[in-house]
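Dear Dr. V.,

Thank you for agreeing to look over these. As mentioned in my earlier message, I'm a first-year student in the group and I'm still getting used to reading structure tokens, so any feedback on how I've presented them would be very welcome. I ran two proteins. I've put each sequence directly above its structure. The first is here:
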Amino acid sequence: MTPTTPHASLQETPLTTLQQSASAPRPNLLQEGGTDLLARSLAAVWHPCTQMKWHEQFPLIALRRAQGVWLEDVQGKRYLDAISSWWVNLLGHGHPRLKQALGQQMDALDHVMLAGFTHEPVVTLSERLGKLTEGALGHCFYGSDGASATEVALKMSAHYWRNLGRPQKNRFIALAHSYHGETLGALSVTDVPLFSRAYADLLRPSFLIPSPDERLGAAAAQHSLQALRTLLQQHHPQIAALIIEPLVQAAGGMIFHTPAYVRGVAQLCAEFDVHWIADEIAVGFGRTGTLFAHAQAQVVPDFLCLSKGITGGVLPLSVVMTRDPIYQTFYDDSTARAFLHSHSYTGNALACRAALTVLDLLEEDRVLSRNATRLAQLEQLTAPLRAHPALRHYRQRGMIWAFEVVTQRADFARAFHQAALGREVLLRPIGNTVYFMPPYTITDAEFEHLVQATLGALNALL
């Protein structure tokens, strides 16, 4: 592949070409007007979740374009985006329908504040999302990202109870190993020490119950539900809501639990007059096999948080959906009873148009049913990986694959990430947990390349 390869051909290059390109000499294309792009980035850009000093040893990768499941850097090297660029890109990079829709929307209306104004994309998106919950969650409040959706849901729940004259109900419950974002409110219900300890003095503590981790057997779910019952019996007058990622605790290490557990949580929250918030920021929009993960438990949350894949990974958008009785407690002459949260880009027309296009594509192309029929073949392709002696707790749900690696290396996550990049695959382990969350458009050949590159990286390190 040469640097002049057309954008549209990125997805078509044979795997043999990919493998050969890893060792082929490349021209230095980092010079742009005499300025090194990487040096400029290091000097001016503070990168997220990154110790910037690491880049003295592990240089940044400067990308110039992307198509399908492939990213291409400025030297022409490609990387299979096996984590959908932090779990957002559902339908492949550079999707023509998304580009067309955004161009058309840009010609009509790019953005207007949603205070005092409205527009067709945000209204239509809200209506369609409500119908997808069969009308149960008919009110949509928009934000920009997952953490802001968590903030909105927490604030909305506590404010609801205040409007009912029960302001003491202002505390929250989360699962051990949970992750719900990195704003202060979201960190208060996050149990990932790397994030929460750094800002512990700024946080309002929440209650934690044990994780229903399937790796520990069925008893783990029962233990968690019993702990939740005991906690609610003692503290329900002070608790506004419980927050949970249905079926998969993603950033906590791809911890799986069953639909029955989610159903048990919903039943206990209803019994003790506590809201439950379904954080489907990572696990919604088909990632666990159904459009909404909570649907597999045949229950409906009081609040549903969506983000990441909602726009197909092209623009930031989040939404919190809730029930009419909750909405009605805010409907009043008093400003103090209104929901007091906003940001300048709430309900951005371009982002809403992208989300509508994603819904169209999922429906018209029958993406989720196609994913389901492909899983048997994809599982066959993982057979060599499952047989690796260093693997433990291999698991799969929908379009998520995960396993632990037995290793003594303290630097395993970083070393594996680098070893995978050397084999033209983007993977970012969580500790010693390796996971795949590729775009739904990944082909069998591309998935096989992912498996083989993973095996190669494992063997190189172990």
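The second protein is here, in the same arrangement:
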Amino acid sequence: MDKWTIVAAAAASVISAMCTGLLLWINMRKKYIAFVEDICKSIDTILRGDSVESFILEDETLISRVQMRLKRLADITEAAAMENEEQKKEVQSIVSDISHQLKTPIANITMYCDTARQKELPEATREQCLEVMGRQVGKLEFLIQSLVKMSRLETNMITITPGNNCLRNTLYEVAESVRVKAEQKGLEIEVECPKEIYLYYDAKWTAEAIFNIVDNSVKYTEAGGKIRISAEPLEIYTKIVVEDNGSGIAPEHINDVCKRFFREGKASSTEGVGIGLYLTREIIMKQNGYLKIQSHEGAGTKVALYILNMVNAD
């Protein structure tokens, strides 16, 4: 074989390889373009908010894997958008609730202030106006303090700091804090708690949670009534019960009384703003506990708090 034949054969081989490579490149380019177009269509589907049922998620192909991740991204984005919308509604609800709570005392203060400023007003009437204004200012102060507690709890500005505490001491502390108010109404307060119950909880905030329940019992129990605070160790939790023989809660409102600012119609004449039980539930839940309410209208209410049976070994 002469050299020209060898050269020709080599050239033919090179040309054949180049043609094969070109065909492969064209084929790969077509697949790449088709792949990119499929991705773009998938992204457009998500951007339009259309159903992703057309996505092929079960196959082991590359486009299937990409579509699966795009679907997960769409689900996450949708969930975030829904959460953001819920937060907006929550903020609007809070602003509306606060405005409603502030409206009455501010209106009363304005009205009685205008009355007290009248020069010809008798001194006794002026003193009465000032007394009413003082009560309304006190109501505003109480409301603002409650709102601050609520806000700090919800935004985690208040840190629950648990420690080993004697439950009996906490319950007696709560009872003593309302005893004067209870005695003024002729109410009896009874505390039953074994001395040996030590639990791992935040003493300050747990006392606040229990106080809110006992304070409600004092408010809604008529003279001569009785309030009983007791504790019972269970297998996993210790149950703390505050029981009274007061006015009770209507059956349709049992699930509402722990909502922020909720107050039954019959409670409108009693001091309060409807935050106490809401704060109680939040405090107990932050310590992995929970709350149950049983009540019969006109026959009293039983509120049970459940705190984990746990003591820090340190």
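From my reading of the second output: The CA atoms of residues 175 and 235 lie 26 Å apart. The chain has a mean pLDDT of 79. Does that match how you would interpret it?

Kind regards,
E.
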